[in-house]
Amino acid sequence: MRLHPVAAALTSAVLLASPLPAASATPATAESARATDDPAGYVNPFVGTAPGGTDFGHGGGAGNTFPGATAALGGIQWSPDTVTRQHGGYAYKDNRIRGFSLTHISGAGCSDYGNVPFMPLTGRPDPDPAARHATFSHSNEEASPGSYGVRFDNGIRTQISVTQRSGIARFTYPAGDARPAGLTVDAGRAFNKATGKISVGARTLSGYTDSGGFCHSSNRYRLYFHVVFDRPFAHTEPLDGKTSGAYVSFAPGTRTVTARVGVSFVDVAAARRNVTVEQGKRSYDQLHGAARDRWNEWLGRIAVRGGTETQRRVFYTALYHALLHPSAFSDTDGRYRGMDGKVHRTRPGHVQYADFSGWDVYRSQGQLLALIAPHEASDIAQSILNQGRQAGYFDRWTVANGGTRVMVGDPLPAMAASIHAFGGTDFDARGLLRAAVAGRQDDRQRPGHQQYDTLGYIPAGTKGVWGSAATTLEYAITDAALAHLAGRLGDTKTQAVLTRAAGNWRNLFNPVSGYIQPRNADGSWP
């Protein structure tokens, strides 16, 4: 692929963005290419797993990231969970791991996912679920884009790698332990309340888990999974007497066990198909290498020349975290479960995405993705439209195939419009514009829209609005983004209407204080 350089400065470093093939593209210099042959080597996935400041109740004191294995925009995030609760599942200060669950959200201020944790052990599981953890040292732990590994103090080693919708784990048990090698898998446990069911075969585990409740919302989802091991079970039993979990052990003398797992939000058959299609018969080492190569392809779309080693580590670690979400939600056959609960199918060669942290990402992440990955960014914009059509409105923060109504404003239409502005244009932009304009009159999408349209701002104390001044500004930003989209599409009438509305922020400027501030319905300032 020939590279399209975009110059930018970062302190003493010069960045060469190299996202897309183009007729006018210029190859990156040999120096910059050499500098980024292995950009994944600069990434530290542990960044953000320790609190960096005081948490005032919304997760803001920590990055809430996770160090485990995932692909860029991947649909599986197989990562360790510590006993100490952290929204990303992992607290760096804790030396106790209680499992390796299949799903995580990076950087959120509330908890969700953490589904279907696996926990390797020798002998039987402790009868007390709270005691089911193993200690470890960070010196025996490693993480890099696409893989994670740790050796517990008890000698058990876990190595994990992933594809887009599946994962592979290699568990190595200590030779000096005569107890049977085994593990637990629990579909009834997650970061929030969960139930589930596991069916046990000769060397397979499959089932589903129901969970949700992001930021105490009513949102729920069902995740299906299928696990196949490289050897048969010697013994199986329900975990704690419940069909939501399983304890399995292997023949005496077993030292290494490999597990392949696929996930899907459609059904178990799709989860099985995902692992078969994406992994084939490739070994752990082959899949580990492929995951690293794929991450280097993604991270290498921005080549760095100059700067210090520390600056490169900071840059590529930040870029890595910017590429974790949204998450691939459709299966290898294109099917996915929509916001209406029905199964839909994408166009061939396209992906439906989920987990949109709208207010947190619409200002810059969508634009970055459009610059370096216009195909995927276009699919993200189409996914936003699909969610809006299926739900009947655009939610502000969506998890899996449900909305949570968390945060403020109307961010997802703005994100889609910005993706279009920055080069991700392969989606139904006219449909997006129509749906977004209609949603401006929907109380679920824009609480306080009546006052916003009639007064030109949302008054202080308006019911259902979290921060009247902030919400007014957010609506105005989205109106501006949609106005520009309408202009690019040649819809001058809609452009004019939205451009006028985008100026509503001025109505909250208090000339006496010199600040934007809340305003009463009668026009007075509180």
Taking pLDDT < 50 over at least 5 consecutive residues as the criterion, the unreliable ranges are 1-34
**Order of strands across the biggest sheet?**
3-4-5-7-8-9-10-17-14-13-12
Q: Can you tell me the overall shape?
A: elongated
Q: Give the number of helices.
A: 12
CATH 2nd-level architecture of the largest domain: Distorted Sandwich
| Fraction of residues in β-strands | 25-35%
CA-based gyration radius: 24 Å
How many domains comprise the coordinates? 2
Give the strand tally. 27
| Helicity level | 25-40%
* Category by helix and strand content: alpha+beta
CATH class of the largest domain: Mainly Beta
Q: Report how far apart the termini are.
A: 58 Å
CATH topology heading of the largest domain: Beta-galactosidase, Chain A, domain 5
Polypeptide structure, described:
The chain is 26% helix and 26% strand. The strands form 7 sheets. An 11-stranded antiparallel beta sheet has the order 3-4-5-7-8-9-10-17-14-13-12. It has 12 helices and 27 strands. Mean pLDDT is 92; it is low at 1-34. The protein is elongated, with a radius of gyration of 24 Å. It has helices at 30-35, 268-279, 284-299, 309-322, 358-361, 365-372, 374-391, 411-421, 429-439, 449-454, 468-488, 492-502; strands spanning 6-10, 13-17, 69-70, 77-82, 96-101, 118-122, 134-144, 147-152, 157-162, 166-172, 181-186, 195-200, 204-212, 220-229, 235-239, 242-249, 256-264, 302-306, 327-328, 335-337, 343-345, 353-354, 356-357, 397-399, 402-403, 509-510, 515-516. A hairpin with a 3-residue loop joins strand 12 and strand 13. Helix 6 (365-372) runs parallel beside helix 8 (411-421) and helix 8 (411-421) packs parallel to helix 11. The chain has 2 domains: 69-298, Beta-galactosidase, Chain A, domain 5, CATH 2.70.98.10; 325-516, alpha-1,2-mannosidase (Glutathione S-transferase Yfyf (Class Pi), Chain A, domain 2, Up-down Bundle), CATH 1.20.1050.60. By secondary structure, it is an alpha+beta fold.
